[in-house]
Amino acid sequence: MNALLKRLTLLLAPALAGGAAHAAATEAAMPSIDFVPGEVRVTAHRDHDDLLSAGLGLAGLAGAPVPFADPADPSAAELRRRAIQMSWKGIADLGPLGGYGQVYGSVPSVPGREYQAFAWIRGAHQPHRVLLQAPDPFDKDKRCLVVTASSGSRGIYGAIALAGAWGLPKGCAVAYTDKGAGTGFFDYADNSGVALDGRRAKRGEAPLEFTPAPLPSAAGIAVKHMHSGDNPEADWGHHVLQAARFGLAMLDRAYPDLAPFTPQNTRIIATGLSNGGGAVLQAAGLDDGHLLDGVVALEPNVQLAGQGRMLYDYATEAAIWLPCALSGARFDAVPFARAPMTQGWAQRCASLHAQGLIKADAPAAQAAEAYEHLRTAGWTDAAMQVAATSTAFDLWRAISAGYAAAYLRRGPANMPCGFHYAATRPDGTPGVADAATRAAWWSDSGGIPPGNGIGLFGGVDRSTDPTLVGELCLRALWTGDDATSRALHAGIEATATRLPRADLPLWVVHGADDGLLPTAFTSEPYIAWLRAEGRHPLYWKVPHAQHFDAFLPLPGFGERHLPLLPYGYAALDRLWTHLAGGAPWPADIRTPAGHPRGTQVLTKAALDLE
């Protein structure tokens, strides 16, 4: 009944937009934004500076990072432009063989305004950043708001290549949240963080994206996702729903002649990928007020109580066991499995043998034993092959150390297992960041150190396998039963996703070859759970797609895979056809077959979407 009433209201919306309806748009009718106690920053973006690419267009987005006139003191406009560019580069395959802009996707110039603020959920120690992009060509006849959350721990533009690229050209407004993560790093060396405009500011000079407790100047770098004390992942769904409400309130300001914007007269679509995909699924499970009309989640980090596997469980397992397993001959031809940074993988086998975790004596047999250990734990060959990239780039240790701090609500000075973050000198040792490095963190970082002049330190010894001691410590937090382990489990259990309402159209799109968030641990148990509970989700397990479209330009990697973004766009298109065009929501849908891109430019035939 609620869905039917909303559909009738939407059909009448164009007629109600003027006259008496506008006269009734009093402040009392406006959506409350009492969760934004401070400034709402409003900026216009037109001519050579638009919403979708900051004036760079597809060629500019794909090009070298746009320089700052003064690297030590970039302007807010320069930081925004580069943050948008780096967010695109971190998510989409913009390489010459990737087909973006020719086979799928586009980057038209979309003029409009941005409304940005720090929002607070009840009980939080730190805010989350919210942003509405209101396009000048907003479709007043088909009111549409896309709400999204950044992937990974990225900054506020971290989902622009998905939500912005799909929604803005269609005349939808797009509301973003950094979901309590982001790149507003606080540097104790100069007591500075990031203000609302993205520029560095000292504690007390302006409201900051993240203001941790005072510590000595040698305390290093504080990261909001890890050190806020909020365990933000437990509230990702609340962040998304609050961003949607912020979006409605800002739409009233952007288009006063069409106000009020409400869930009853505006279609609200939630979409996100990776952690952002998990966030919108969390939001779907919390949406008792029928705020959302539909959800499309790509490769979601979805965590379930008692089903699938929790990210921390398989990430700590992967950090320990994958280096040994991947040293086996069966992975010789896998991209990045024999890269220079993998030379210590055989030593991992010997270390596990010395620890009594592997019984075999010969290196080949040790690798085979580690491989079988992972197979028994649910890892597929496809997931392990692609996980060679994450293992080579040391992502498992970075994720495990950071997320342990978040789940335990630890600060920068007492991260578990002796880890901490600090600025790095050119030789990789801890030091103090210069002004140019510090200024670019907000625009350039992916949100989880190490990288961009910040190192992950601690959790090592002087052995021939120095990182193992920290990885075993992090694993023991999962397998142990002391007070710290129980606290960690409580923090992780708080992130479990709830059941969405029965009438919510929901579509999950996941790459079959995902080696970071394997489908067997995430989407597949989630979809099975929904169906067992009488829900009717759609699910695409896309052959040859993996987790990082941005990795596809890497030599030897893109030839084996397909991008996932075009399948996300296609799912959003079909959801929109259902919501705005009245097409029936199917009970099931054919998963595209597709085939690897190969060494040539991606083709439409490879995607199998027609």
TrEMBL record:
Gene3D superfamilies: alpha/beta hydrolase (3.40.50.1820)
Assigned keywords, A-Z: Hydrolase, Signal
Signal sequence range: 1-23
InterPro entries: AB_hydrolase_fold, OHBut_olig_hydro_put
Pfam families given in the database record: 3HBOH (PF10605)
Tagged with keyword Signal: yes
Protein name according to UniProt: Hydrogenase
Organism, as annotated: Frateuria flava
